[in-house]
Specification:
This protein has 356 residues and is α/β, with parallel strands linked by helices. It folds into two domains: 257 residues, QueA-like (3-Layer(aba) Sandwich), CATH 3.40.1780.10; 79 residues, Beta Barrel (Thrombin, subunit H). The protein is built from seven helices and 17 strands.
Length: 356
């Protein structure tokens, strides 16, 4: 790694301003629909040391992997967390967005409109198939909501809930599975780990056939990851905690890659945050689970991650700050300017970037 990059990382954490991560994004570059072929997305390859850029297609990712590398993927599954219902007493339309399960049938949720959903308010969904009572107001104005229903919760939710697409996506999603990775397994996320959306089962099989290990970790993505940074000083921003879990099998694969001098390449910022949260000071992992509110921004020293597959993120977001911690702020902003010039598609259903 060059001396210049080291100097930037040593000093960047001091006096960081949120506005340092602003860029002007034309609205028409925000992807509204997924591509028919997941692996046909474009891929911008950024060298984190030199800042040099290549333009590829996502399936070309194979050209940048070598036997012995380890890809880390987040196998969380998005739940259809957006529920549209009516207030029992007035019939007024309301929305409940599930964030985190607190107990069996008690969830922390975002609600709209908040003024109408105070403690004691009752809501029905699907002509009474699902009912809810607001129990309490908690941090950030979120609500604790008690649900009641007949049958199996997962089946009721699947039939009534919608995928919680980000607000910048205005098109209706015709196939729920397109907001899931092909390897999604454990339910619990309020948003997809979108870097993984580019992989097909066939492409993953090709990656494995090359001799690259696939390590699956779990982090249930909350909306806190996407909350805007409202403070001027980056270091004053508080991340919401998210549950993660790493199995012994995944830990062993990641440790083996590091010990043998190969790379650990995370698929998405959530996989990155998982392994960086769980690693000890020497970068070793053991089987574990817990909650993390890790916030990675320039000045952070990565313990595990060597490379990253990620999408293009919102201006002034914590995610832009994370990728800047890896590749340097100037390199990232330069790459984003290039992506805009080349008309890359941005955000959840958009194109991908590989930082190596």
């Amino acid at each position: 790694m060059g001396v210049g990059m080291d100097q930037e990382r040593n000093t960047a954490a001091d006096g960081l301003k949120t506005s340092d991560y602003y860029f002007d994004l034309p609205k028409e570059l925000i992807a509204q629909d997924p591509l028919e072929d997941r692996s046909a997305s474009r891929l911008l390859v950024l060298d984190q040391r030199t800042g040099s850029i290549e333009h590829k297609v996502f399936r070309d990712i194979l050209q940048y992997l070598t036997p012995g590398d380890c890809l880390v993927l987040n196998d969380t599954r998005v739940i259809p967390a957006r529920l549209l219902g009516v207030k029992e007493d007035t019939g007024a339309a309301v929305e409940v967005l599930l964030l985190k399960r607190r107990e069996k049938d008690v969830w922390e949720a975002l609600v709209r409109p908040g003024k109408k959903l105070r403690p004691g308010a009752r809501v029905t969904f699907g002509d009474g198939r699902l009912r809810a009572e607001i129990l309490d107001v908690v941090e950030e104005g979120n609500r604790l909501v008690q649900f009641s229903y007949e049958g199996i919760w997962e089946e009721v939710l699947d039939s009534l809930g919608e995928m919680p697409l980000p607000p910048y996506i205005t098109h209706k999603l015709l196939d729920k599975n397109r907001y899931q990775t092909v390897y999604a397994k454990y339910e619990g996320s309020a948003a997809a780990p979108t870097a993984g959306l580019h992989f097909t089962k066939e492409l993953l099989a090709e990656v494995e056939a090359m001799g690259v290990d696939l390590a699956y970790v779990t982090l249930h993505v909350g909306l806190g990851t996407f909350r805007p940074v409202k403070v001027d000083n980056v270091k004053e921003h508080h991340m919401h905690s998210e549950f993660y879990q790493i199995t012994k099998e995944a830990a062993d694969k990641i440790n083996r890659a590091k010990e043998s001098g190969h790379r650990v390449i995370c698929v998405g910022t959530t996989s990155c945050r998982t392994v960086e949260s769980a690693a000890d000071e020497k970068g070793r992992l053991t089987a574990c689970s817990g909650n993390t509110d890790i916030f990675i921004y320039p000045g952070y020293r990565f313990k595990v991650l060597d490379g990253l597959i990620t999408n293009f993120h919102l201006p002034e977001s914590t995610l832009v700050m994370l990728v800047s911690a890896l590749a340097g702020r100037e390199n990232i902003l330069s790459a984003y300017r290039e992506a805009i010039r080349e008309r890359y598609r941005f955000f959840s259903f958009g194109d991908a970037m590989l930082i190596v």
